[in-house]
Specification:
CATH superfamily of the largest domain: MutM-like, N-terminal
Radius of gyration: 21 Å
Largest sheet: 4 strands, antiparallel
Number of domains: 2
Strand order of the largest sheet: 1-6-7-5
Strand content: 15-25%
CATH architecture of the largest domain: Alpha-Beta Barrel
Number of strands: 10
Structural class: alpha+beta
CATH class of the largest domain: Alpha Beta
DNA sequence: CAAAGTTCCTGCGAGC
DNA sequence: TGCTCGCAGGAACTTT
């Protein structure tokens, strides 16, 4: 469930549930996700309090009271499910057991993919579930965040002071298609396949258009590039609003609604009519870098 | 057959 | 000519 808006929604959910609590016990049910868990992960974080939870790109950064940071990426299928103390009690009574996953269907599957359990001092628990295991969990020592290999080459946050001028600089010499460029986290972070399609559709830009053709010869952004930047920010903002409007006790419910409770204008609408007034075109699906792109060939140029 | 993400590998062209 | 570098495109990871 992982583009910027979904990760931000999860961040808010975890913030509510975790900040101010201490990690009493952390349990790993396998040795790796996409990468092995760091050496001694559990013992190095147990006893520490959660001070704050931040987001950088599609990564979650969980700040601990001694300066360490838990780095978490949801990959394609990662989710957090939160259980308050009362729910934990209920599950303990009905399912029993202590060291095996008791949450089963509550985390979205039967428990086989519940890889990490964070148990807090107040009796609440956060479970990380990830069937495809493209997710990542790592531990960063205090002050070493800026040199973490996964974070160091990330581009600007779209909700920062990102603008068309900055984007133009990065696209000036790029022959890659604009769709593929938007997915490149070194150019701008947080945009994934769905919102890249949506932003290009709204902007009337063909996803296969060469990136550099959106920059003028003097290096300034074209009007279309200005529009694209506005639409990327708008699409992401609107998605955050939708995700944030739902309940707070299940981070996965938030994330799921963020994607599928919302209907898209282009994504996953192959063979359906273009929604732009008077266009009359039909949404097409093509493949770029092995990923589906949805577009209206009539109004995207 | 496809899937919301990221990293790594290979092949190619440019430039020294 | 031969080598290196960077870019572009594709495969790989895995389960439902």
């Amino acid at each position: 469930m992982p583009e910027l808006p979904e990760v931000e929604t999860v961040r808010r959910g975890l913030e509510q549930a975790m900040v101010g609590r201490s990690l009493k016990k952390v349990i790993l049910r396998r040795e790796n996700l996409r990468f092995p868990f760091p050496e001694g992960f559990c013992s190095r974080v147990e006893g520490l309090q959660i001070d704050s939870i931040r987001r950088r790109a599609k990564y979650l950064l969980i700040d601990l009271s001694d300066g360490k940071v838990i780095l978490s990426h949801l990959g394609m299928s990662g989710r957090y499910t939160l259980f308050d103390a009362q729910k934990v009690k209920q599950y303990a009574m009905t399912q029993g057991g202590d060291e095996t996953s008791r949450f089963g269907l509550a985390t979205g599957f039967d428990g086989r993919h519940d890889h990490v359990e964070f148990r807090f001092d107040d009796g609440s628990i956060a479970v990380y579930t990830d069937p495809r295991r493209f997710g990542i969990m790592d531990l960063i020592e205090g002050g070493e965040e800026s040199i973490h290999p996964l974070l160091e080459s990330l581009g600007p946050e779209p909700f920062g002071n990102w603008n068309a001028k900055q984007l133009a600089q990065r696209l000036e010499k790029k022959t890659t298609s604009i769709k593929v460029a938007l997915l490149d986290q070194r150019i701008v972070v947080g945009v994934g396949n769905i919102y890249a399609c949506e932003a290009l559709y709204r902007s009337g830009i063909h996803p296969q258009r060469e990136s550099r053709t959106l920059v003028r010869k003097d290096g300034k952004p074209t009007k279309k590039l200005d529009v694209l930047v506005e639409n990327v920010v708008q699409v992401l903002e609107q998605a955050v609003e939708v995700g944030g409007s739902s309940l707070n006790d299940f981070a996965d419910v938030n994330g799921t609604l963020g994607y599928f409770g919302h209907h898209f204008q282009a994504y996953d609408r192959e063979d359906q009519p273009c929604l732009k007034a008077d266009c009359g075109g039909t949404i097409e699906r093509i493949t770029q870098s092995g990923r589906s792109t949805f577009l209206c060939p009539r109004c995207q140029r």
